[in-house]
Design brief:
The structure is a single chain. This protein is globular. Helices cover 46% and strands 13% of the residues. β7 (274-277), α14 (284-290) and β8 (292-295) form a beta-alpha-beta unit. The relative contact order is 0.11. The chain is of the alpha/beta class. The protein starts with a helix and ends in a 5-residue tail after the last helix. An 8-stranded parallel beta barrel has the order 1-2-3-4-5-6-7-8, surrounded by 5 helices. The protein has a single domain (30-305), classed as TIM Barrel (Alpha-Beta Barrel). It is built from 15 helices and 8 strands. It has helices at residues 2-21, 32-38, 53-59, 78-91, 114-129, 143-152, 175-181, 185-191, 212-216, 218-221, 234-242, 248-253, 255-271, 284-290, 299-305, and strands spanning 43-48, 66-70, 102-110, 134-138, 204-208, 229-231, 274-277, 292-295.
Length: 310
């Protein structure tokens, strides 16, 4: 009993010393975004249109939970992405003690159909091998594309799941990525799996339901095992439903747009996954109350509302 009490006192003293020194707590996960979602807390992200080492160093101290790295409309530049990830490491750790902020890449490949994903899953492999923490698949029109998307992010030995075939990632993909994550390669092989499909996974996968074809399959696509979040992509959705671009205010209040957003939001709730929506200081509280869990803005107001420390 005395030894147990002594051990408790040592832990308590260490915690006090850490607090007094201002050292950040040891993170529970590699992926800060997953760590927060696991606690039931909304998360916030910032964006970058590509960029290399210096951009990574600059964003290493972002207050956001993750960084969206655009490769859909910006250049598909793998050397730049790898340099960006190295910059994050050299600019870290983050104020929360994480080695880097989480990074989620939007792909130039679209989830139009199963054939598209079979022909282009190598892009997913290249991006994950750079050490990123997640991927967002744009224009995910059919559940078959979402299924292949998930399979392409997994290793063949990953825990089997009903509705998915074996993973497609190969040996050799773990070396650079493990260095970025700061863990041994065998640990990376175990942890580089989609969450919450795998409770120990550190990869966050999302889909954009952003055109009329994708909207028709929203309920099926969002239920594909391994998909963690979805968004309705109002910019592209407006192209498909309204035609010539209109002012942002018109897009959000148009009945067809409101119906599309409501359908995707309901689909995510029914599938028990997370919904992404643009937020700002004025509407973030309302968005959170509605069920939005991934926000583009409104960080300080949102954190205050949920009483969440940085």
């Amino acid at each position: 009993m005395r030894k147990m009490l002594f051990g408790v006192l040592l832990v308590a003293c260490a915690a006090i010393v850490s607090a007094q020194s201002g050292a950040p707590p040891k993170p529970a996960r590699i992926n800060r975004a997953i760590e927060m979602l696991e606690k039931g807390q909304p998360i916030y992200y910032t964006q970058t249109s590509g960029g290399g080492y210096e951009e990574g160093k600059k964003l290493a101290q972002t207050p956001s939970d993750y960084i969206t790295y655009d490769m859909e409309h910006a250049a598909y530049d793998m050397p730049a992405l790898r340099a960006f990830m190295r910059g994050l490491v050299d600019g870290g750790p983050t104020p929360t003690g994480h080695r880097t902020p989480a990074v989620i890449v939007t792909l130039p490949v679209l989830g139009l159909d199963e054939a598209s994903m079979r022909a282009n899953y190598w892009v997913i492999h290249q991006v994950l091998a750079a050490g990123v923490h997640g991927i967002l698949l744009c224009h995910t029109r059919v559940p078959e594309a979402a299924r292949l998307f998930v399979e392409a992010t997994r290793y063949p030995f990953a825990p089997k799941v009903a509705g998915l075939d074996q993973g497609l990632r190969g040996s050799g993909s773990q070396g650079f990525a493990a260095q970025i994550w700061g863990i041994p390669q065998n640990d990376y092989l175990r942890r580089a799996d989609p969450w919450p499909l795998n409770k120990e996974g550190e990869i966050l996968l999302g889909v954009k339901i952003e055109d009329s074809y994708a909207l028709a399959n929203a309920e099926k696509t969002t239920k594909v095992p391994g998909i963690a979040f979805a968004e309705w992509g109002p910019g592209d959705m407006g192209f498909w439903l309204l035609g010539i671009p209109r002012p942002a205010e018109d897009q959000t209040i148009h009945p067809d747009m409101r119906e599309a957003r409501s359908r995707v939001l309901k689909a995510t709730k029914d599938a028990k996954i997370f919904f992404l929506n643009s937020c700002n200081d004025k509407n973030v509280v309302e968005m959170i109350k509605e069920g939005v869990m991934i926000c583009t803005g409104g960080y300080e107001v949102g954190r205050k509302f949920t009483n969440t420390a940085r």
